[in-house]
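Module 6 notes. Inverse folding takes a fixed backbone as the condition and produces residue identities as the prediction. Think of it as a translation problem where the source language is geometry and the target language is the twenty amino acids. Below is one complete input and output pair. Work through it position by position during the lab.
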């Protein structure tokens, strides 16, 4: 494998992992956007599907799946580190730092919801992308993205809401959040959709 290709694959994998980290941190805050109630990670998370599709296209399914599992592990390490730092006593010289834990220390359900939903949805996205790729080869790249996202986006949202909020909110609230998340995620996915055409399909 050429050095240039290795650099591109590493950059794509790093971009995917960073996007997943940023999105999961953003999910700690529920925001109101144009009258819709969504978690903050919704604004960025759909880009992970496109970045994973690009990585899959460039490096193959095995590397894409490995990167998904690696991202899950790094996300768990991040939240574990936040818990550790929040548990340590604050230095008296700098005053009260309780805001650190209040903002960045999520509940266990939210962490599990973010990581489990992300991992399952991304693996499903990779599976469907591979099926379409085997069926049509290098043709119809747009179909790979549309079909994989059509399944993985609602799957991700449903798993996240079920683990994080089932039993906390009434069904009408959960349905409202689910539909709002779908709308925004699909809109963001359309914005990033054409990114798959930026790299050559090295799996031909």
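Target side of the pair, the amino acids:
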């Amino acid at each position: 494998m050429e050095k240039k290709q290795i650099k591109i694959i590493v950059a794509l994998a790093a971009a995917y992992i960073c996007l997943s980290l940023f999105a999961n941190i953003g999910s700690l805050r529920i925001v109101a956007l144009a009258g819709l109630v969504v978690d903050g990670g919704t604004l960025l998370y759909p880009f992970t599907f496109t970045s994973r599709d690009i990585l899959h296209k460039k490096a193959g399914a095995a590397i894409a799946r490995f990167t998904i599992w690696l991202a899950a592990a790094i996300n768990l390490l991040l939240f574990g580190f936040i818990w550790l730092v929040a548990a340590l006593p604050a230095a008296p010289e700098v005053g009260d730092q309780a805001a650190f834990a209040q903002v960045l220390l999520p509940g266990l359900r939210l962490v599990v919801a973010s990581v489990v939903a992300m991992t399952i949805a991304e693996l499903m996205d990779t599976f469907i992308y591979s099926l379409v790729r085997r069926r049509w080869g290098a043709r119809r790249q747009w179909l790979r993205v549309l079909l994989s996202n059509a399944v993985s986006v609602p799957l991700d949202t449903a798993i996240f809401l079920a683990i994080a909020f089932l039993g906390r909110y009434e069904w009408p609230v959960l349905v409202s959040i689910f539909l709002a998340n779908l709308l925004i995620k699909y809109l963001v996915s359309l914005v990033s959709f054409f990114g798959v055409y930026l790299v050559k399909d090295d799996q031909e």
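Reference fact for the lab report: Residues 3-198 form a domain with the Arp2/3 complex 21 kDa subunit ARPC3 fold (CATH 1.10.1760).
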